[in-house]
Amino acid sequence: MDMAALHLAADLGGSVLSGEGGALVLVEHQRRHGLPVLLVLGSRTPHLLEALEAWETCDAELNLCALLPAPGVDLSAALRFHRRRIGSLVAAVDAGLPWLDDRPMLAARLPGRIFMAAPETLGKAPLSPLEKMELKSFLPAWDKKLRREAFRRGSWKEVEGGFETDLWPGVGMPTNAELRIPPLALPTATSLVDVLRSSLRNAFNTPIPLLPLPGDPSNLHALAQLTPNRAAFRGPVEAWRLAYQKLAELPAPPHFCARC
């Protein structure tokens, strides 16, 4: 019995799914059988609280699955194991990724991770002139060196047996490097991202940039096993409420679940 998962389930009012990969805490809110399902994934309990409260206080024609992995879970394996239990999704959202300097944004690209016995100089991650301008205006207190290390060419860190560093999409990988986490480019010209971006914009009354995001992309990568429509999103209750209403209007995939 995974005691950490039981404590998380008690905090969220959910149930524990046990199986291959480790325990997941699942909180299900259903309005009607057969409605499209939105999966919200968090890495810590607070990431899900606003999303759950917003669902309770809106009437969107949308069922909700909220997932929280217990510590040490192999999320990719766990999601594969529980694919049918979770059901058919209209979208999957990772609410666990942080905003930079606590300002709302959406992720466009996330770095992977490579390992080498000895460091080599990698190329800089490609950024368009518009992206460079957006980063400078979004993070005016960051100097050029800090932006480069966070978004374009990370520093090598010594680990057991060698060195690790970030690998951004568009950067060539050395032939003798080991890929530990694949880099991830998220689709941004989609109705899902349009809904999430407009919901944040309305809630905050500020432009919402699409930026590369430093961090571990493994959660969003794992969500690809459930749906191709995935994004990072975090906001106050009002932003979640707006997103639910608009997501409920989008075309959903054919419904299936264990009952059907």
Walk me through this protein's architecture.
39% of the residues are buried. The strands form three sheets. Strands 1-2-4-3-5-13 form a six-stranded mixed sheet. Strands 8-9-7-10 form a four-stranded antiparallel sheet, with no helix packed on it. The chain has a three-stranded mixed sheet with strand order 11-6-12. The mean pLDDT is 91. Strand 1 and strand 2 form a beta hairpin. The chain is of the alpha/beta class. It contains nine helices and 13 strands. The protein starts with a helix and ends in a 13-residue tail after the last helix. It folds into two domains: 3-103 and 189-247, Zn peptidases (Aminopeptidase); 112-181, no CATH class.
Features:
13 strands; 260 residues; four-stranded antiparallel sheet; globular; Aminopeptidase; 2 domains; alpha/beta; six-stranded mixed sheet
Q: Could you give the distance between the termini?
A: 30 Å
Count helical runs: 9
**Structure classification:** alpha/beta
Q: In the CATH scheme, what's the topology name of the largest domain?
A: Aminopeptidase
* Number of strand segments: 13
Strand order of the largest sheet: 1-2-4-3-5-13
Percentage of residues assigned to helices: 25-40%
Secondary-structure map:
Layout: H1 3-12, E1 15-17, E2 24-29, E3 37-41, H2 46-56, E4 63-69, H3 75-81, H4 83-86, E5 89-94, E6 106-110, E7 112-116, H5 129-138, H6 144-151, E8 157-159, E9 162-167, E10 178-181, E11 184-185, H7 191-204, E12 210-212, H8 218-223, E13 230-232, H9 237-247
Parallel strand pairs: 3-4, 3-5, 5-13, 6-12
Antiparallel strand pairs: 1-2, 2-4, 6-11, 7-9, 7-10, 8-9
Helix pairs in contact: 2-9, 7-9
